[in-house]
Each structure stands twice: as C-alpha cells, then as structure tokens.
Specification:
There is one protein chain. With 154 residues, this protein is mainly β. The protein has strands at 7-9, 13-19, 28-31, 37-40, 51-54, 72-77, 83-87, 93-94, 99-102, 108-110, 128-130, 134-135, 148-153. A hairpin with a 5-residue loop joins strand 3 and strand 4 (37-40). The protein starts with 6 loop residues before the first strand and ends with a strand.
C-alpha cells in the first residue's frame, strides 16, 4: 500500500530550512554548510541525525514534488518510534525488519557491515528498521523517486 505522506506515525518536530540543493521528500538530510540550510545526507553508512525531508503540504505538493535549491523546505526531526515513508536506493533488496542506513545521497540502503563507515554516536540515529519488504535488485533505475519504503526510526 503506497502512502501519500512521508509521516506515517509518531510526532517528530517540523522545522523549515533553506534547501542547499534539490531535495525530494523522504530523503535523509543533514545541515548544510551555512546556517539554517539542509542538504542530502552525504556519508554512505555514516552516522546521521534522523532528519527527513517532508512534503510541502501547505503548497498542495505531494511526496514526489522535490524542493528546488535555495527554496524553503519542511524537515522532520525524528525520534525512535517515528514511522516514515522514505526512499530506498536503486539495486537494494530490503527484507522486512532489515536494518537500513544512509546511501550517501539522501536514499537509504541495507546495512552491510563490510561497507558501513559510521559508528553510532550520542544524539544520532544510524539504523532504520524496514517495515515492509522491497526488492529493487532488478530495477531499471528509470525513476528512483518512486523507490519508497516504510521505515521506523530506531
């Protein structure tokens, strides 16, 4: 069942920031180089605060409508237990209950202990729990904005 919103459950804090690059709702994000900006999370396997781009519902935009660079965007500061509809990287095969992490481009990937770069640090969340199986291992990569997956912040 597809969702038309990024926030499935929980009560994360919503904040507005300027996007330092184009960002699609459901992407994992991190603070940009300048104050009050956000960018896609850029460290594959690295520790990340649970900050997720939210759809611009006040403008009537949907989860497929990306924010443009230098425009304002809404971001969710999530906590354990929050449930979201995020983006899974092309080529991934996430089984139900699989642990997920940053792919380094705003998307999530299945945790691979051999390639994971990060360690969990206080105040950060690295792992996401897959809420439904999604197999993109044979996907064409034609429209990666449609590769959505239900996750729970751990």
């Amino acid at each position: 069942m597809a969702s038309n919103t990024i926030l499935i459950g929980g009560s994360p804090e919503k904040q507005e920031y300027t996007c330092s690059e184009a960002i699609t709702p459901g992407m994992l994000c991190e603070p940009g180089a300048t104050a009050n900006t956000m960018k896609k999370h850029a460290t594959a396997g690295g520790a990340a605060a649970a900050i997720v781009a939210f759809e611009d519902e006040l403008q009537g935009n949907e989860i497929t409508d990306a924010y443009s660079a230098n425009n304002k965007g809404i971001f969710l500061h999530c906590k354990p237990g929050d449930r979201l509809y995020m983006l899974l990287a092309n080529g991934e095969n996430a089984a139900w209950g699989a642990k997920l992490e940053s792919n380094g481009d705003g998307y999530l990937r299945v945790v691979d202990a051999d390639t994971s770069a990060g360690t969990v640090i206080p105040g950060s969340i690295r792992f996401w729990n897959c809420g439904a199986a999604v197999d993109l291992s044979d996907s064409s990569g034609a429209d990666p904005s449609t590769y959505r997956i239900y996750v729970e912040v751990m």
